[in-house]
Structure formats: C-alpha cells, structure tokens
Amino acid sequence: MVCVALVVSASAWGQAGTGTEYDDAELPVAEAAGDRLVPAELVIREDVVLRPFEARMFGFNWNWFFANPMVVEPETNVLRDDFVEAMRGLSVPLQRMTGTESQYFQWRKATGPYAERQPFSLRPFHGSPAVRVGFGPLEWVRLMRRINPEVELVWCLNLYQDAAEDHADFAELMMYDGVGNPNGGVDWAAVRRNAGIEGPAPIILWELGNELDEPWHQDVIPDVEAYIERCGAAIEAVRSITPGARFAAHAVTAPWSEKKNLKKFGPDGHWKEWHRRVLEELGDEIDYMVFHPYYAGYPIPTVYRFVSDITDDIRRITGSDRIKIYFSEHARWPPRPSDGRPWSAYFHKSHSLEAVLAVSEFINLGHSRNDVAMMTYHILHGGPWRTIDRRPDGEGFFFTGIADLFNLYQSTMSGAVVESSLAGPETDVTSDSLRLSALVTRDDDRSGLTLFVVNRSASSTRRLRLTTLDGPYRLTDRWTIHHEDLDAHNTADDRPLAPRHQAYEEPGVLRSLDVSPQTITVLRLTRDDADAASRTTQR
C-alpha cells in the first residue's frame, strides 16, 4: 500500500488577535499529533463540469513600498535583471496593483524621466519619508511583460485622493492608443510610448478603491453613498478613454469584526447594507464584487459563508449571476506573539507549512464554486507574506512555500474542474470542522484526471476510497508537500516545502489510497487500456 502524503492541520491556528480581522475570533485549540486511520470517500462526477481551468485564480497582489527597493536599481527606474530572472521561476498570469497604498499612491509623481519625478511618501499612514519613486506604473507594465508577455493586470484606482480627471488621465496613460490627446494638457499616451510601451497596457479590470469602508478613510468617504458617488465618477472617467473597461466594487472589509462602526454601512447597521446599496446603484456598471478574506483565524468555511451571502444578494438584486466574486487579496494572516516578541517573529507563519495548507484548502473550495472568478494572493513580496524574498546577504532572491504551491497547482491542473464530493468525518465544506478537502480536474480529451487533496489533520491518516470514476484509471504521478513541523518554511538555504514527485509505471486500476496527515497531495490519474481494466489495485 502506497501512502500518499497530505498536509494541513486545522489545528494550531495561532492565538487570538492576529490582526484587526480577528479581534473577535475565538481560534481553535491546537490538535495534538497522533496516528489514527479514518476512512473517507471521494465521489467524482466527470460528466458534471463546474468551470474551466482558470489561470486568473492564481494571481498575485503587489506592494509599492516593498517593491521599489527590490525591483529597480537604486536611484533609478531601471529594472533589476536579477529580480527579473528570479521571477521567471514563478507563474504570474494575473497581477494586481495594489492594496492600502493604492489609496495614497500619486501616479503622476512616479511617471516620466526619473530625474523629473517628484518625491512623495509611499506609506504616509505609517509616517514613511518622501522618496523619489523609480518603480512606477509604467515600470510595472514593462516588468510584467518581460516576465510573462501574456500577463493580465488589475489596477486599483485611488478613490480616496484622486478626482475624476485624474482617473481619465491615468486611463489615457495606460490605455489610449488613438490619435490626438483626448484630455488635453499632458499627452499621457505619448509619455507611455516614450517609456517603451507602444500599445495599451494589458489591464483587464479596474478596481474601485481599496477597503474604503475602513475608519481611516471616513474623512473623505463617510458612508456607502459617498463610495458609490466616487465609483460612478471613476467609471465614467475611465470609460471616456477606454469604453469597454470593466470594474470591480468592494464589499465590506472583514465583516465578521464586531468592533467595526456598523452604522456607516446603512441605517440598519448591518454589513450587508454596503454591498446591497452598491449593487442597487452600480449593478449594471460592474462585473465583480471584491472581498478580502484573510483566513486561518476564522476557519475557511466561515469565510465562504460570507461570500455566499454576497452571492445571494447579487442574484436577488440584479436578477442574474453575471457579477462574480474577486478576491483581490487573500492569505493566511500570521498570528501575533503572546510573549512580547515583535510581530515579525511570526512573519514566517504566513508562508509556513500551516499557511500553505490553509491556502491550498482555500483554493480547493474556491475552485469548486461558480461564483468565485478571480483571486490575487496577498502578497508577492514584502510584509509578512513574502512569496519571493531577498536573500539575507542581498545576493539574489528565493521563493517561499506559497510559490511552490502555486507552481504545483498550475503545472498540474488542466481542462476543467468537475464535480466531486467527500464523505466522512471532517469533510463537510460548510462546517468549521473541515480538515479534508479535494478538487478534481479533467483533461479536455478525457484522457486523465488530476486530484488535489488537502489533509489538514495532524493526527489522522485518511483512507480515501474513490468511487464513480468513469475509468478505469491508473495512478501515474504523485506530488506531495509535507513536513512533520507545521512551522517549517522555505529559507534562502533550505526548501522543506518543495513538492516531491514520484512516478508510477505499473498497471492497475486505482480504487483507494491513504492520505497522510499534514500533507498536500496531487495525484495524476491516466485512463487505462482494456487489459488493465481487469486488474484492481489499492495504493
């Protein structure tokens, strides 16, 4: 019997107080390690296609503050060759710019010849000093196209500071490809061309602000009506330059927090009033509702219950499911130390094995739904999350386990996601006791299946029985991410979360397998020939 390792302990999620999102969360007690054998059944319905494989589910969010010293040479806007080469090791189909800093970013001062750029603070909310910014919007476009010529971009408009004319000028800078200067003043399209970008930037979506329901924006956006007004002006301005522009509006940030000033969300003080008003007023103008789930504080099924509430309102208010959900930020929020140490002592917990398991479970559940259309993981670099990080000696870069996870999914997924369901203890995707999750994709020519299985239990090996396979199938490849220590994480000198691969050549129909604790397992099943159909094996 071949044991197939999996990872994820729903166990030690950390201590309460991992961030403002979790101020009111009561986190589960760590599950003790053990050695139990618990049965489960995976039912696969190959003929029921849920959705095509979508690379837009594997995007990344950026950050101006951390990117500038990492991506360009000092005191220039010249891209660093070593960063470009390092990034070629990570699939980057979709990129978003950016989070909180987007509402303070002054794009005019970060555009044009470097010597003519005006200093400003990338993080005024943290008191960071004004600097001349070398890595601006056009450098971002040039970088992403060097890494992936087919990349798609999401731009987060600054609704907190910029006016409609600023949005129109920025759209001209990034998208205008016609004759003349539509807005007058600076010929922004010429500025783009002078920077070496001939055609429009590959922006597929314009995000309407970032978390503008939060209290630090109340001086400008005191309520949802003010947000809607700014959204409407921004939509009109951008479409005056690029008529086919698509937009995403925000739902409430971290609605589970009881410490929010709920009255600003509507007369009833309920978090749903915010997105309901947005949908009522802007439902014909937008294509996505944005939600920011930071999980493994609250269990992932809890987070998805909030998503379901938004989706229900989309259908009820607009009369269709055309508007989809976009997670423009998602990640595990690292807990804060309870022993007086700085938060940075726990930053590795955002990309440790425990975090990688949580992210994998989040991906599995998201791909199994029709309402979730796009995701950009927070964050590519910097902060606690660090998908790519600089080596301590400053010579080069390395990838964390998040990069290993994303590359594994994208290199093995194909075709379409098909319907599947798990039965057995801790398999209910609507229950906070979830520990075992699975995602199944089918090749377009039906020659094979790929199974993505996450076992977050620290104590239970799951004996997984496969049923209703339109087989026969044999196991040809297995990849696992596993470690005995949930705290294990990649460093500049060690890569414990690298996927391990094993190939199988012997014939035989796969009927069941053992899934180890704390392991992510990817199984490649290939349709077998008629002779092999007479042989049944258990692995």
Report the average pLDDT across residues: 90
**If helices are DSSP runs of H or I spanning 4 or more residues, what is the number of helices?**
10
Main beta-sheet annotation: 10 strands, mixed
For this structure, the quaternary state is single chain
Strand order of the largest sheet: 1-22-18-2-15-16-17-23-19-20
Structural class by helix and strand composition: alpha/beta
Q: Which of globular, elongated, flat, extended, rod-shaped describes the shape?
A: globular
For the termini, the CA-CA separation is 4 Å
* Strand residues, percent: 15-25%
Estimated radius of gyration: 24 Å
Report the uncertain regions: 1-30, 530-539
Concise structural overview:
By secondary structure, this protein is of the alpha/beta class. It contains ten helices and 24 strands. It is about 20% helix and about 25% strand.
Overall description:
The longest helix is centred in the middle third of the chain and has 19 residues. The N terminus and C terminus are likely disordered. With 539 residues, the protein is an alpha/beta fold. α4 runs parallel beside α5. The chain has a 10-stranded mixed β-sheet with strand order 1-22-18-2-15-16-17-23-19-20, with helices on one face. Strands 3-4-5-6-7-8-10-12 form an 8-stranded parallel beta barrel.
